[in-house]
Amino acid sequence: MRGIGTTCGLLVVAACGSNAPPPIGEVAPAQCPAFLDLELDGAASRFDPGFTGLAHGVGLETGSRLTVEVFGCDADCRRCQIRGPVRADPAVNPVISQRCLNGIAQTCATDDECAPGTGPCRFIFPPVQGQTINLPVCSIVYFEPVPGVGDGSPEQGVVDLVTGENDLQTLSINILPTINEACVDCMNDPMPNDGVADGTCAGSATKCDVNGIGTVIPSSTSYDCAPTPSTVPPIKLATNGTATSPVQWVLDDTRPKCTAGGGMTTTEPCFCGVCASNGAPCFADRDCPEKKCGDPNRVVKNNNCDAPNMNDACIWDAATQTGHCKVDTKVPCFPDGKNGQTLIANGFAEVHEGFTNVQLSNLVCLPSFGNNLIDFISGFPGPFLFQAKFHVTPRGGT
What's the pTM? Predict the structure, then answer.
């Protein structure tokens, strides 16, 4: 549930319906679009996973794109349902993002089209170059279907075509990391995302088209330069409820207590907890099978500023929602509970002539990555604040 910004809302379109007139000065579009094409603005987005801060700033590559289908609009052609991802119009985006998950150089439409061992077939963002201290990580971020929820599409929600607001009751995204291996860059490609392989994958003669450009870590990744298949289980991001409205977490006594490992529980409230029985993230005792949110055998903190400097602390700027450790000033951090701090992911929608800029936001708790080194360095289980800004263009319709 989102902490602030709750209104009549897009998710209750059946209740609000077309009887609610648009605000004065707002006019519904002349026709309902059939699709929305989204392109990520990587430089304006924010992806901060883990409590140590050492993985903060790593996110999707600029050039990451997706298309969703628009349907079920109300009589005013204002509030519509969306689902996806779906294939883009080749005239708009010649790059096919539907790929074999363990062999992303291969496009596909069904699992059967993937060679043995390279499936399943999924919609995938360009490979994401990451870095945790001196440990490179090349991650595949992809959409996972959700059988039994609506039509099973990984992304399902509602959009207001007048204001640009989005509510995604379903957003099923997984991360498949290849650890200790950097993504292979596509070199000397003169025109990214044109569908023409005019570049060459670094260290080989394989031709490639640049599909993703790193903004924090320099990179020019490509579907054509596929990473080695991951040996780590995929991480399922709990991103349902992502929207253009802001979400806020408050550190108070209702939060689970931080845990220090070795059977020790602290007195400090923590943004995230974890169930002892299954390792799943939790916020309250009711979230766990054993009705206890908090595993004293795991280290779960708000930040890592007290290690190794016991007198260190997080200096948090509430206005910018950013922080850094007092002693280790180059290390980002989330606020702790000593002063009742809040954590806010900001979302918004800006309507322009012919397009909309939207920032989808959420706060979630990430589980363990299943790799002790990654968990220790990056701080998992732990909070994940993300703000993904997209340029949205309507297309088609009648």
Answer: 0.88
